[in-house]
Amino acid sequence: MSNRVVHFEIHAGDVARAQQFYGDIFGWQFQDWSEYAGMPYFGIVTGEEGEPGIDGGLMQRQGDGAGPGAPVNGAVLTIGVGNYDAIHERILAAGGMVALPKYALPGMAWQGYYLDPDGNVFGIHQPDENAG
Q1: 52 alpha-carbon distance from chain centroid
Q2: pTM recorded for the entire structure
Q3: Rounded alpha-carbon distances, angstroms, from residue 61 to 13, 19, 51, 86, 110
């Protein structure tokens, strides 16, 4: 085993809203895996087989939710994008909020963090050797 991340999960208070949010912004597809999980659970397909990246899952949040000003409780998902500014606009239009504005990783990329409608933190990352 290579110790690589092979799956991620997003916990949401409103699963249907989360599917709409991430589907509209990133084009992710969702598969109902509830039968296998023994609870409402949706597989997230983030891209085509053989492309870099991983797939994940979406499930009903158990307990109190995340929110603005609350500490991150878990790993932060960062999505590679081709056009930071276009995705930024789509996030805001879909009900997301800026958590940490766009900044340069000099000589490497543009990075920023957002809150989804459930208050979950996620990042977007656009490679750009001219960033800075």
Answers
A1: 16
A2: 0.80
A3: 5, 14, 29, 29, 30
Q: Rounded to the nearest 5°, which phi and psi values hold at 84?
A: -55, -50
Domains in the chain, start-ordered, CATH in brackets? 8-127 (3.10.180.10)
Residue 111: the pLDDT is 92
Quote the tokens at residue 73.
Answer: 């409780």
129 DSSP β-pair partners: none
Position 2 scores a pLDDT of: 65
Hunting for tokens 């930071």 — which residue is that?
Answer: 84
Judge contact between 107 and 86, C-beta under 8 A. no
pLDDT category at 18 given cuts 50, 70, 90 is: very high
Q: Which of 108, 112, 114 is nearest to 128 (CA)?
A: 108
66 secondary structure, DSSP code: P
- Give, for 121, the enclosing helix (H) or strand (E): strand 121-127
The C-alpha R_g of the chain, in whole angstroms, comes to 15
Tokens in use for 127? 């490679």
CA distance 103 to 117: 22
Percent of the chain with pLDDT over 70: 90
